[in-house]
Amino acid sequence: MQDVVPQVAPYAGQAMAHDITDYQSLFLQDVPLIDVRAPVEFSKGAFPHATNLPLMNDAEREKVGTCYKLHGNGAAIELGHHLVQGQTKTERIAAWAHFARQHPGGALYCFRGGLRSAISQEWLRVEAGIELPRVAGGYKAMRTFLLDTLDAAIRECQYVVIGGMTGCGKTELLREIPDAIDLEAHANHRGSSFGKRPTAQPSQIDFENALAIDLLKRRARGSDAFVLEDESRLIGACCLPVPLRQGMQRFPLVWLKDTAQNRVERILQDYVVDLVAEYESVHGSDTGFELFANRLRESLKNISKRLGGARYAQLAKTMDEALHEQLRSGNVDSHRAWITALLAEYYDPMYHSQREAKADRIVFEGSHDEVLDYLSEHWPLASSRTPVTAL
Hints:
Helices cover 57% and strands 10% of the residues. The protein has 17 helices and 12 strands.
């Protein structure tokens, strides 16, 4: 009952007319999907509107897989039916039926549209009287479609990248641009050493799938020019798809500027005020604050080698004092000291160096409003546009 044998014939009673081959419509219409793969497969990567209601759990799948390797396809199928019978079978069909009744326009899939989805579809039809289409080619075909979609979007569309010093408000700017792609939102991470959020990041596959679907939907609405924030190869644990990362090395760059004071205040708001509120919302007041404080300390420790021992020790002391005061009184003013020092002594020199390396791609630089005006007037940029004089 694993999708490991390419020559498996359709399950008895399977009506091939019910197979879905229009993957684009599945994603454009957010069709609710039952993923009948095992939980371990689902956790590695799935699709935004998929719910994992497996035909076999992880242990059952492993047993069937071992049996297939040792004794072949027939024995594996027989074992699968033995493992999923009686009350177990009834409960799994009931879960599929409940989903199908709540989502009458839904569909189901397994790894590659093989035996598991055929069996699930047939059991659902026979035992619950519900006809639910399955996705031809299953997860593998849909995943390939999304990777191709992503490659095509990077190859065929125009992009401009928003760069700037830490805390200059790049993410805020993106929120005001209709055709901005927020990579950090897809990665659930703010992108810096301090960018980890209290909720988990998506798997690499889920990150790529969500990004591809975002681009697919925007292109279906007629958009073919997009704005991105300048990112390194990794956004937390999520790695930019190689074609996108390569593209971001050549896309035109707009440099956003802001005052040092505004940048400190923005970082204070994002990485202290808002972040502690996120942690407390997820984990409760006391535990949330402790996890938030540990997150700040760990983030600083992660760059300790690049800071140097003495500089790290001083910043860690200043941060600890600020956290103690915040816990005692709720006052966050003391955090400005380590934020200011970290910008001046670490982030700004690094970004100045990066800006120099990218100077030939900078087509404009200015404040928040100036950048918005520039994009409104000049975007999308023609591929042949030459850099304009920076402000």
